[in-house]
Amino acid sequence: MAELANLLLEVELGTKPEVEHLFNYALSQVYSSHYLNKINNFIRGRINVKEEMSQKPNIVAWNNGSTIFINKLVFYQKSRTDQIQYLLHEFTHVLQNRRNFMVLKTFPELHHLGEELYDIARKNLVGTMAEFLTGHDQPLPTKDEYETVAYLMNGKIDWNALNRDGRKDFVNKLYDSGIFNMKSIFWKKRVP
């Protein structure tokens, strides 16, 4: 299993063992055992989590390259569930970093899946992409295939923003990918 402790080289989350434990458990719920092994072999020394202080209250976490930043002014005020969802969202972005050759080479199927899911969603929208990804019609930083898989981690997908065929194709693509542990509670709460 990928261990959050391996990521936490520069952050004081290590003093918060419940966050580490929950994140590790969440990884086992999100990814298939095969994919977790792939992640575990990759992350050592390559992905970092850092605490930053941002005065923007709407920014909880973000990423830049292979580093996940958490806004400690906001992050620790969130529930444990929200903390884990933000970490999973940003962790997924790191695994989809298109500018890092090693990430692209190691996780090509995740990139390809993001493109396919985005294409399915785009062709079958009955609402906006923002409504589908977040449950609200709100501005998103980007609305491309880079966001689709990451927003699945948030648990706020509005399946009604896709037509019936789109929902079916989208979910089938998730199952067929072999990337995710689709039998877990995590996914049972997120897919129709």
Count of discrete structural domains:
2
Question: Mean pLDDT, as a whole number?
Answer: 83
- N/C terminus separation: 27 Å
Helicity, as a percent range: 40-55%
Radius of gyration: 16 Å
With helices defined by DSSP (H or I, 4 residues minimum), what is the helix count? 11
Biggest β-sheet strands, sense, barrel: 3 strands, mixed
Largest sheet: spatial strand order: 1-3-2
CATH class of the largest domain: Alpha Beta
Determine the structural class based on helices, strands and strand pairing.
mainly alpha
- How large a portion of the residues is in β-strands, by DSSP E? 5-15%
How many individual β-strands? 3
Low-confidence stretches: 1-12
Q: What is the N-to-C order of secondary-structure elements (H for helix, E for strand)?
A: HHHEEEHHHHHHHH
CATH fold topology of the largest domain: Zincin-like
The geometry reads as globular
CATH architectural grouping of the largest domain: 2-Layer Sandwich
